[in-house]
């Protein structure tokens, strides 16, 4: 929450030694937040200035003492944390310096740490005449001492003397600031990055404030009005976010099937031409799409991942379009001369048919793997479409409605861009990407039950038409089996997690540090182990087939954090801190193969443990070795951590835990933007908004449930609109109240805004 800037560094990878920095872009929090739609532009790289590349905080106190002769400035330098590493070992040798006018004093140097503890008091005698003018600045600087060459700047804090007169004793943690050298734009000589950055920052109120809005939304599954009004004020740009948020709200309430049924029923009843059913990006279409991602991602992985991996591994040159065939790309070991265009097409068709057959067989044999809640949602959709389109010529519409979502909006996009669905860690190269595109096109035709074959421009896809047409019957049979499920098999109990306890959220080989006490060299102390993470346990074994596993209950996890490189002289190491039955803290160190894998595991374990009650506020980014912590050099193993934990810092994706307060806040913001539109349409409010709001408020207070608060002459829509506006007004007022409280709690003198 306390971040001030976001930096992007472009690196030059070196096989030996540390990577070189080509240039960087730094965006302040204010600069990002000032753009409602975020930043989307090309930005020139600038040179990295060490004096501006500072980080961390310093804990100190400043006191102005009025002596009999001369006043004295007493500065107690207590400690610092998260200082920038300036030495090749990944640490620094910091010392602090206090400066006022021409006088200065320094602390001792603490070697090899980014978390120094000084506990020293420095005093400066001041000139009474200069001090009485209340001008000047007291500066506290932190430097990295170097035996050879000049010292490296680590940051500074400045205190106006006027503040010391108003507040004789200042104490706290203060952010270290750069020297203030303006970054020089070298006119794009270092290159440029195109960035899309958006900051969404909300104040989340206590749950009790959101309950009335949740109650209205839950009511609307039966009553429909509140959801109708929300859809009316939802912009095209925000429709996907609103859809995903609503899916999560109703998942948490155990009402996602009725919610989807309501949206789909409205969509079906308002559609006269079956050929246009669910073809637009309506709230119903977006909600179904997001619902499948939320509950069906692991199912998708089971079905597609083996085939996708095979395509990536084989990396075949495949092309059917005569205009795009490049004979130089097609390799063939033969003594018959060059490969002809016809041979390339035949080989490509044969390989595509093999891949497509594997995909279709994997999908149509996956009925039992498909989540029950997805099957019931599709069953309801099938029923609504069948009721609306009863004509014999529309016999296939009930299948097309389901396959349109299942194949066109779920499986085909996952084949086209596997990385976005977490099927692969990296995007496909040009060759593999073309193969995936052709397969996605073919699977779309399968989802359309082959009805569009031969009518489009891409007649060169004809070699795949026979297999597509042959698959229609088995796809229909698959869809019939998919919806052959009892509605009661889906639990309507509210759930706080999308995933079941037994479902594996993440798995793979990592390197685990051996038990403490071993004196092996760092590179031999990490052993390869296979890890599994579910919402209940983090377990590991020698291999994925190994029956004997060790595990840590997720409920016992207290922190999941990075480890400094100098702790083990190894990169990409994280630590999982847990508490055993005796209340003792235990730390397991795990090494990942690269920084992306490290971020993914950190995020996954943090999400699984996000509701734990005993999360630590601080941790040690080093390790306790040779009788002291490598980070802060403290000897006591049980000393509180020297750096703040980052439990809430996660990567946003489909496996995010449900958070009803955050989700309802997003819906409130959408309704707040459309409040005037709702008032004008449903209540025909006069110009005197205050009088009208007052009337609504009085009626609401007479009967809190809102059912009889509006005159009986008003229509149901008007009644719900009035209740909805009252809820919006209550939430808006709550935000104002909390904002005032925060201002009252903030010190009048803000030294580091």
Describe the SSE topology.
Blueprint: E1 5-12, E2 20-28, H1 29-33, E3 39-44, E4 57-65, E5 72-81, E6 94-100, E7 103-106, E8 117-125, H2 128-132, E9 137-144, E10 152-160, H3 161-166, E11 169-175, E12 192-197, H4 207-223, H5 225-233, H6 239-253, H7 256-269, H8 283-314, H9 341-364, H10 372-388, H11 397-416, H12 430-447, H13 465-482, E13 506-513, E14 526-533, E15 537-541, E16 550-553, E17 557-563, H14 565-568, E18 573-579, E19 585-591, H15 595-608, E20 618-619, E21 624-625, E22 628-629, E23 643-644, H16 660-673, H17 675-683, H18 689-702, H19 716-745
Antiparallel strand pairs: 1-2, 3-12, 4-5, 4-11, 5-8, 6-7, 6-9, 9-10, 13-14, 13-19, 14-15, 15-16, 17-18, 18-19, 20-23, 21-22
Question: Can you put this structure into words, describing what you see?
Answer:
There is one protein chain. The protein has 753 residues and is of the alpha+beta class. The protein folds into five domains: 5-49 and 187-197, no CATH class; 55-175, Immunoglobulin-like (Sandwich); 207-254 and 662-686 and 715-743; 285-328 and 339-490, GTPase Activation - p120gap, domain 1 (GTPase Activation - p120GAP, domain 1); 504-644, PH-domain like. It is 38% helix and 19% strand. The protein contains 19 helices and 23 strands. The strands form seven sheets. A seven-stranded antiparallel beta sheet has the order 16-15-14-13-19-18-17. It has a four-stranded antiparallel beta sheet with strand order 8-5-4-11, with no helix packed on it. Strands 7-6-9-10 form a four-stranded antiparallel beta sheet. Helix 6 (239-253) crosses helix 16. The longest helix is centred in the middle third of the chain and has 32 residues, at 283-314. The chain starts with a strand and ends in an 8-residue tail after the last helix. Mean pLDDT is 85; it is low at 492-497, 689-714 and 746-753. Residues 54-174 form the C2 domain. Residues 503-610 form the PH domain. It holds the Pfam family C2. This is RAS protein activator like 1. GO terms for molecular function: GTPase activator activity; zinc ion binding.
């Amino acid at each position: 929450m306390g971040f001030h800037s976001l930096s992007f560094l472009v690196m030059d990878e070196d096989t030996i030694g540390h990577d070189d920095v080509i240039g960087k872009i730094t965006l302040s929090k204010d600069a990002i937040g000032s753009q409602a739609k975020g930043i989307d532009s090309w930005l020139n790289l600038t040179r990295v200035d060490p004096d501006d590349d500072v980080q961390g905080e310093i804990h100190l106190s400043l006191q102005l003492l009025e002596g009999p002769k001369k006043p004295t400035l007493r500065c107690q330098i207590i400690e610092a944390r998260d200082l920038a590493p300036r030495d090749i070992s990944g640490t620094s040798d910091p010392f602090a310096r206090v400066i006022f006018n021409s006088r200065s004093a320094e602390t001792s140097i603490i070697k090899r740490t980014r978390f120094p503890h000084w506990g020293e008091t420095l005093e400066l005698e001041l000139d009474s005449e200069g001090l009485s003018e209340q001008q000047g600045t007291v500066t506290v600087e932190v430097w990295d001492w170097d035996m050879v060459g000049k010292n490296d700047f680590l940051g500074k804090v400045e205190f106006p003397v006027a503040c010391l007169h108003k507040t004789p004793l200042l104490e706290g943690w203060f952010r270290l600031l750069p020297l203030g050298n303006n970054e020089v734009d070298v006119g794009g000589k270092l290159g440029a990055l195109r960035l899309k950055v958006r900051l969404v920052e909300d104040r989340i109120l206590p749950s009790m404030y959101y309950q009335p809005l949740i109650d209205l939304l839950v009511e609307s599954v039966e009553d429909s009005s509140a959801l109708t009004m929300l859809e009316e004020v939802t912009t095209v740009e925000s429709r996907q976010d609103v859809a995903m948020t609503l899916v999560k709200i109703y998942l948490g309430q155990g009402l996602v099937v009725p919610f989807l049924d309501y949206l789909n029923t409205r969509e079906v009843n308002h559609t006269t031409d079956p050929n246009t059913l669910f073809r637009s990006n309506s709230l119903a279409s977006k909600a179904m799409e997001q619902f499948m991602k939320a509950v069906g991602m692991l199912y998708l992985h089971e079905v597609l991942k083996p085939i996708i991996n095979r395509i990536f591994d084989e990396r075949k040159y495949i092309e059917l379009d005569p205009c795009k065939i490049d004979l130089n790309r097609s390799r063939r070991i033969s003594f018959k001369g060059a490969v002809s265009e016809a041979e390339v097409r035949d080989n490509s068709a044969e390989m595509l048919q093999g891949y497509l057959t594997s995909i279709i067989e994997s999908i149509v044999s996956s009925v039992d793997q498909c989540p029950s809640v997805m099957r019931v949602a599709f069953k309801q959709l099938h029923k609504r479409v069948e009721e609306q389109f009863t004509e014999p010529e529309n016999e296939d519409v009930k299948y097309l409605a389901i396959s349109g979502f299942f194949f066109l909006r779920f499986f085909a996009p996952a084949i086209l861009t596997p990385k976005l669905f977490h099927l692969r860690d990296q995007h496909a190269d040009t060759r593999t990407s073309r193969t995936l595109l052709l397969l996605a096109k073919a699977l779309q035709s399968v989802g359309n039950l082959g009805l569009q074959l031969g009518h489009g421009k891409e007649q060169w896809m004809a070699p795949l038409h026979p297999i597509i047409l042959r698959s229609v019957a088995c796809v229909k049979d698959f869809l019939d089996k998919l919806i052959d499920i009892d509605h009661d098999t889906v639990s309507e109990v509210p759930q706080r997690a999308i995933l079941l306890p037994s479902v594996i959220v993440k798995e793979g080989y990592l390197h685990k540090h051996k038990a403490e006490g071993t004196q092996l060299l760092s590179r031999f102390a990490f052993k390869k182990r296979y890890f599994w993470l579910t919402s209940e346990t983090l377990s590991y074994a020698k291999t994925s087939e190994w029956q004997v596993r060790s595990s840590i209950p997720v409920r016992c996890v207290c922190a999941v954090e990075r480890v400094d490189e100098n702790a083990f002289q190894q990169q990409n190491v994280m630590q999982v801190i847990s508490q055993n039955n005796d209340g003792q803290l235990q730390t397991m160190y795990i090494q990942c193969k690269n920084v992306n894998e490290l971020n993914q595991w950190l995020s996954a374990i943090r999400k699984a443990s996000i509701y734990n009650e005993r999360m630590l506020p601080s941790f040690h980014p080093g390790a306790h070795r040779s009788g002291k912590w490598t980070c802060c050099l403290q000897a006591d193993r049980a000393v509180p951590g020297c750096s703040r934990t980052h439990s809430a810092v996660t990567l946003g994706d489909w496996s995010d835990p449900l958070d009803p307060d955050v989700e309802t806040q997003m819906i409130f913001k959408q309704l707040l933007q459309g409040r005037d539109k709702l008032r004008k349409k449903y209540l025909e409010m006069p110009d005197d908004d205050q009088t009208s709001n007052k009337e609504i408020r009085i009626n609401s207070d007479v009967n809190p449930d809102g059912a009889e608060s509006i005159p009986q002459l008003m229509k149901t829509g008007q009644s719900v609109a009035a209740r909805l506006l009252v809820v919006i007004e209550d939430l808006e007022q709550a935000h104002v109240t909390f904002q005032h409280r925060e201002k009252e709690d903030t010190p009048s003198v803000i030294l580091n805004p």
